[in-house]
Amino acid sequence: MSEIKPIVVFDLETQNSFDDVGGYRNTRALRMSIGVTWSSADQAFHRYTEAETPALIQELESAALVVGFNLLNFDYEVLAAYTDAPLRNLPTVDMLDHIHRKLGFRVKLDDLARATLNAQKSGHGLDAIRWWREGQIEKLFAYCEQDVDVTRRLYEFGKKNRYVQFYDKRYKLQQVSVNW
After folding, report:
1. What is the distance, to the nearest Å, from the Cα of residue 82 to the centroid of all Cα atoms in its chain?
2. How far is CA 15 from CA 46, 66, 102, in A?
3. Could you tell me which of 67, 80, 140, 72 has the C-alpha nearest to residue 106?
4. Which residues have a Cβ under 8 Å from the Cβ of 105 and sit 6 or more positions away?
5. How far apart are CA 164 and CA 160, in angstroms?
6. Of 59, 109, 114, 158, which sits 20 to 30 A from 120 (CA to CA)?
7. Whether pLDDT at 120 is above 80
8. 25-66 residue pLDDT tens
9. Quick one: pLDDT at residue 121?
10. What percent of the chain is predicted at pLDDT more than 70?
């Protein structure tokens, strides 16, 4: 009997900002501070430090599907500094990429979560870098877990209902159809 591969929802935080490393062209130089996954196999979060990056990559490679927000252009690029594996070839749902291709512009995870789930992120990426530098690792993991949970819930909502929502610049509720 073959084992069913899990869906893995993934996010990471970085040690540095784009300003620290000379801009977007140097994404790999950002260095991962921590990563968090949620796996459908055990319905649990898994935490990874930079030293545990090989185990994180192994979990992603063993997934039937990796789900996230800006995985292709950010998270996978950061991880590329730690592996030669072609992460972009993993079966992936990058919700930001999907929505950007549909709308022609980017919508923030927080904006989608607020309009679709009545939920919000607990901070932003610059907070995460500050917490890393201050050694507030538990706070950093809690923040990243919350992001992964919001991402998972948004993915599940979109999968079930075939749309997600956001407020446009005029604060009018908009729907975007999704097929993930």
Report:
1. 18
2. 19, 23, 32
3. 72
4. none
5. 10
6. 59
7. no
8. 999 999 999 999 999 999 999 999 999 999 999 999 999 999
9. 73
10. 98
Q: Which residue type is seen at 70?
A: N
Reported as half-sphere exposure (CB side, CA atoms, 13 A), residue 74 has a value of 18
All structural domains of the chain:
7-177 (3.30.420.10)
Q: In whole angstroms, what is the distance from residue 46 CA to residue 89 CA?
A: 22
Q: pLDDT tens digits, residue range 70-103? A: 999 999 999 999 999 999 999 999 999 999 999 9
Measured CA to CA, the distance from residue 148 to residue 67 in angstroms comes to 9
Q: How far is C-alpha 107 from the geometric centre of its chain's CA atoms? A: 14
Burial of 137 (0-12, 13-18, 19+ CB in 10 A): middle
CA distance 19 to 13: 15
